[in-house]
Amino acid sequence: MDLQQLKFNRNKLLTDMSTIAGKPWSTESRAQFDQMNVDVTNLESDIQRAETLASLNAKDQQFTRSPRPQVNGSTTDETSVEYRKKNFSEAFRQYALHGRAGLNQEQRDLLTTSAATGGALIPQLFNDSLTMARKFYGPIADKVKQKITDKNGAPVKISLGNDTTHGLTLLGTEGTSSPAETDPSFQANILGVDTVTGGLVKVSFEELEDSAFDLDAFLRESFGMRYARGLEKAITVGTDSAGTPLPNQTAGGISAGATVVVTTVAIAEGLGWDDLTAAYTGLDPAYVQNASWVMNSTTRGYLVGLKDGFGRPYFQPDPSDNAPFSRILGFPIVLNQSMPAMGASAIPIIFGSLADAYMLRTDGQPSILRLNERFADTLEVGFYMWTRIGGISLNAGVTPLVSIQQASS
Questions:
Q1: What gap in Å lies between CA 266 and CA 407, rounded to an integer?
Q2: pTM for the whole thing?
Q3: Whole-angstrom Cα distance, residue 181 to residue 17?
Q4: What number is the average pLDDT over the span 151-155?
Q5: Of 98, 133, 161, 225, which sits 20 to 30 A from 53 (CA to CA)?
């Protein structure tokens, strides 16, 4: 199914959900609404995959050099999309089959081998896939501020200043008084990195030797999604994907760093329009211009079903729009599946400027190691991805993020 059809199906479901929400609820309509919400979430994932492929294909077609002359006078375009893809895939397959020793010089250039680890850095095409995965599967990682360092791993000092309490003061009669000293307040934090892994992927010898098996695409899909979702979890709650706190991530992530400005009246009442407007008004105006809503897809599905006192849905969708339910009060919604689900004492919604609230540090590009002999007895080869990341809150005294917390009962 093509991208436009996927978007059409998603938008139609969202519109149907809004129609259902505009009528009195029944057991049947609730079940139908909930199933539609699940279908929307699945379609969102399919759309993200299709957009990732479209972005990569568009990038590949942006630049093509002139054909290189051959000895016999003929030409072959050795920098064409097809040629580069074929060469890259063959180089990666040879690396997978034979390890570093199996690569010629041209293939080593494609893979940028790393003598220090005995493995290979992820090549450019692979790295583009990880970037796309961050955008579509873990979009929160591209919304926060970025700090990129070059494989040194050394702690970095981050200085934060706060001058919000100072403005203009009346100066007494000239020559009779001096202005008071009003220095900004500063604080410094150290931002380190943690070594994290995308886990291990095993591929059988038979698959490696099968020319029809696209090893490049398989590893890109496997590691790309793990990388994106891992970053999302680290930024949102400050842990790895297994729930272990990361020493060099802000404790609790952006969820804990956001200031609670409204607590709902009772858990049974869910979230209401007044809660959303209270979050909007509770954010410092300095951060409103670049603000976003952050929530998971289930919470968004719940909000689609909200109605005002006259039984009208809060959201008036435009079926012709690519993302008809992508904004609240004019501010974009960033879907984040690591955000807590709605429930007692949960914080399901954050609002504010992500770039002013949090800094993500990535140290060098992710690396892949080929495990040659570890799984030889089962006729398999292992591929192991690792990278180094860190994160820190940029809150210097006036929080760039606010949140809505649900009542405890």
A1: 5
A2: 0.70
A3: 59
A4: 74
A5: 98
351, two tokens? 């609002």
What is the phi/psi pair of residue 62, to 5°? -70, -30
Token pair for 403: 């949140």
Measured CA to CA, the distance from residue 139 to residue 142 in angstroms comes to 6
Give the Cα separation of 95 and 171 in Å (integer): 73
Torsion angle in degrees (nearest 10) through CA of 34, 7, 403, 244? 80
Q: pLDDT band for position 55 (50/70/90)?
A: low
pLDDT (tens digit, 9 = 90+) per residue, 187-218?
A: 677 788 899 998 888 888 887 777 566 776 77
Give the DSSP H or E segment for 362.
strand 358-371
What is the pairing mode between strands 113-114 and 401-405?
unpaired
User: Which of 230, 229, 236, 151 is closest to 193 using CA atoms?
Assistant: 151
CA 355 – CA 339 distance, rounded (Å)? 18
- Under 8 Å CB-to-CB from 140, ≥6 apart: which residues? 231, 232, 235, 236, 254, 294, 334, 336, 338, 354
State whether residue 189 is helix, strand or coil.
strand
pLDDT, tens digit (0-9, with 9 covering 90-100), for 303-317 = 888 877 777 777 766
